[in-house]
Amino acid sequence: MRYQFGEFELDTRQWRLTRAGAEVPAQPRVLEVLHHLVSHPGDLLERGRLMREVWGVAVGESAVTQTLRKLRTALEDDEAAPRFVETVPRRGYRFVAPVVRMGDEADPRLVALQDAVAHHRVVTLHGPAGIGKSWLAARLSALRVPLRVGVSVEEAVATALALGHSGNAAVAAGLAARTQPVLLDGAEGAVEALRGVLPGWLEHAPALRIVVTSRRTLDLPQERVLPVLPLSSDEAAALYRSEASRTGTLVTDTPELRALVARLDHNPRAVELAAARAPVLPPDVLLGRLHARFVVMPDLDAMFAWSWDQLDPADRRALVALSVFSGPFSLADAEGVAEPGAAGTVPTGAAWIGTALERLLAHALVGAHAGGFHLGESLRAWLAVREPEARAAALARLAAALVPRLTPLAARLPSRPDPGAIPTLRRWLPELAAIGTPDALLVAATLLDVVGDVPAGLRLLDGAEAPILRVRRAALAARGGLTERARADLDAVAAQAGAAGRGLAKVPRAEVARAEAILLAARADAGAVDVREQARALASEAETLGDPVCAATAANAYAIVLRRAGDAGGAQRVLRAALAGLPADADLPRAVLLANQAVGHLHAGEPKEATELLELALATYEALGLPSQTYTLRLNLAAAHLDAGRADTAEAAFAAVESATRSAGLPMLATVAAGNRATAALLAGRLDVAAAGFGRLLQEADTNARLASWACWGLATTARFAGRAAAARSWIDRGLAYAPIPVRHRGLLLAARVGVDAEAGSLADARDGLATLQALATGHDEPVLAALVPVLTAAIARASGGSMRARSEARFVEVTLEEARSTGR
């Protein structure tokens, strides 16, 4: 740290004092005393404190006096008219010159404070307990006066000025002689007293500047209120790690740490309290126990209790009502949850909630930003424990106002969302979850279904019993590959409807059919071979239900089933027919069908046609702000680059999607992107990169046979290209052992084994394998397998001494790789 004062600079890293750049000779003990003084500008440092903190052992007062004399000599300071070090007789010393800590000028909070002090006579650093008001004020060069309970304001200031207890007039005269600002720290308990004495002080001392730290504003005409904002995520994480190190605990910067400090509202005091418990409750453990944060951090409870005790009953009721909002809220929102009779929606003097809101802002219990008003999460949690019944009543009032407003937005969401509907619904997700009624949960589940956030949707609906919610949960579970869970929910709804008969409000058939379609597609993706007829029948039924979203979902699922069964041409025909039957306003269903049709073109080795459709669908998803679907389409666009032979471009695109999806918490998409990235590296000839990528894919695939078989194909192919035939055979056998796997993956693994056998001279085995591959290609509409047959036939012919050569026109990755291998390119 470097401290600048006058023409001098103290550098504590190099432990040297300079004047206008030239070093000033000084003994280490002199520099230590100077460091203590400049670290606390304006504070009275008593002799005993200097003895303890600098010498650390009992020394005579003469040692302190001699050291201060040497310091004044080094600074050329006159004790009778000090520029730097002031002696307070029989007490100690005070550093009176302005001090700048090097680097502080870049801190916007300190810059704002310095600017406010320069232009206003009274500046109140305002914010909730623990937000860092005193810490920020201490960085200002000022006379610091701590205000304490039981000590009058005049007495505290007189003590700091070394005036004794000589009354307010003497205090005003003493302040008039000050050139530094005066910092009154911890003023919330003395607000009334300050309102009485400050106007007189300011009148008798025209140059006086007062800085106050307080959870309450003074409401004086000369006052400039400067809100102290929470720390940034980086600052809060750094503070936690620093404070934890004091306990001997080393903490790394992890997502759990970032989540913890965010849940503590980036409040410095709360972060310090959490860090003090790091040896027993490290970030990941404490994060899981924040439901009991006031048990494991009792000081946090005391902090909020003090603020609660300062409020009158009306303001307490208003604060509890406002605690139902997890994010920014407006004045109209506040009026909607106001307690009837205590705060109506029409201004009625003191009963209006706007009046209470103003007072809560003054107490720093409510914050105000550009997005509206807000409460910190820790305060909301404290109020939920303290006043559960009043909060439940406020939540019911919020439900009555909010759910009818959001339901129409959610109803249009699956087809053509209103502009801004998705951001609006995202904003209210926590409140909808807290309300917890079937209507509220349905609105939230609709959003999570559309945006593709399966984990959040399943958490939201966990334990829900309403039939419509069980159907939505089944659709979400199917999207996440949890087919057994989805089937159980759909069966339970059917049983419930049959048992209740007319006494049960039945779920619309279109809702059930849509969930059934998603489940069939998921089963086909998992390798099921017995769902083709079910998918066809469901698609036919969906066309008669008059619901375009259901019809598009069922057609999309039927196309997926056909493609997984090897009928790629049939899948494309189904999609074209479904697109032709969509109404003009079905934007989202159209994007879904276009994206699936584009996948069919990729499957057929037609990257140009795929790119055109993908870009159309991508425009819809980006306009609506749907990241999961956007990332999926970007994956397919990168695949189009790969199939067009642009391996380097594709690898970079896959890497970008992988990074973005991991950051966004979409692990499955990240895994698929990583696998495609490895394929691109393989095509570009970077075998080590490809092998590492496929190895990670196999590890992340876990029990997903489709991904695992793909990874085995990649590892087998890289081993072949590296001349390790035995390793290639091992990976091929492992890949074929997974069940069930897609027809295409099985064919690719068989093709790789044919290649290995041909290269090893095992021509009989190679021909048998080729016959099996040819039968597979003939029995399924898999263009890539059909295209591989002549390539491998040519490879076997060359291995047996023939001259046969075949070149496929298709530009599949797998065909390109086989041609490269068999021709030596």
- Mean pLDDT figure: 86
Beta-strand percent range: 5-15%
**End-to-end C-alpha gap:** 61 Å
| Proportion of helical residues | 55-70%
Helix/strand structural class? alpha/beta
| Large-scale geometry | elongated
Low-confidence stretches: 343-350, 804-811, 821-825
How many individual β-strands? 15
The value of Rg in angstroms is 36 Å
Sheet of most strands = 5 strands, antiparallel
**Cross-sheet strand order for the largest sheet:** 4-3-2-1-8
Number of helices: 41
Could you list some keywords that capture this structure?
single chain; 825 residues; alpha/beta; 5-stranded parallel sheet
Describe this structure in words.
The protein is α/β, with parallel strands linked by helices and 825 residues long. It has 41 helices and 15 strands. Strand 6 and strand 7 (92-95) form a beta hairpin. Helix 23 (454-460) runs antiparallel to helix 24, helix 25 packs antiparallel against helix 26 and helix 32 packs parallel to helix 34. The radius of gyration is 36 Å and the shape is elongated.
Brief overview:
The chain is of the alpha/beta class. Helices cover 63% and strands 7% of the residues.
Draw up the topology in text.
Blueprint: E1 2-5, E2 8-11, E3 16-19, E4 22-24, H1 28-39, E5 44-46, H2 47-55, H3 61-75, E6 85-88, E7 92-95, E8 100-101, H4 108-119, E9 122-126, H5 133-137, E10 143-146, H6 153-160, H7 168-176, E11 182-185, H8 191-204, E12 210-214, E13 223-227, H9 233-246, H10 255-263, H11 268-276, H12 283-288, H13 293-296, H14 298-309, H15 313-322, H16 331-337, H17 353-362, E14 367-369, E15 372-374, H18 377-386, H19 388-412, H20 421-427, H21 429-435, H22 438-451, H23 454-460, H24 467-479, H25 483-500, H26 509-525, H27 532-543, H28 548-564, H29 568-580, H30 587-603, H31 607-624, H32 627-643, H33 647-663, H34 667-683, H35 687-701, H36 705-721, H37 725-737, H38 743-760, H39 763-779, H40 783-799, H41 813-823
Parallel strand pairs: 9-12, 9-13, 10-11, 11-12
Antiparallel strand pairs: 1-2, 1-8, 2-3, 3-4, 5-7, 6-7, 14-15
Helix pairs in contact: 1-2, 1-3, 6-7, 7-8, 9-10, 9-11, 15-17, 15-19, 19-21, 19-22, 21-22, 22-23, 22-24, 23-24, 24-25, 24-26, 25-26, 26-27, 26-28, 27-28, 28-29, 28-30, 29-30, 30-31, 30-32, 31-32, 32-33, 32-34, 33-34, 34-35, 34-36, 35-36, 36-37, 36-38, 37-38, 38-39, 38-40, 39-40, 40-41
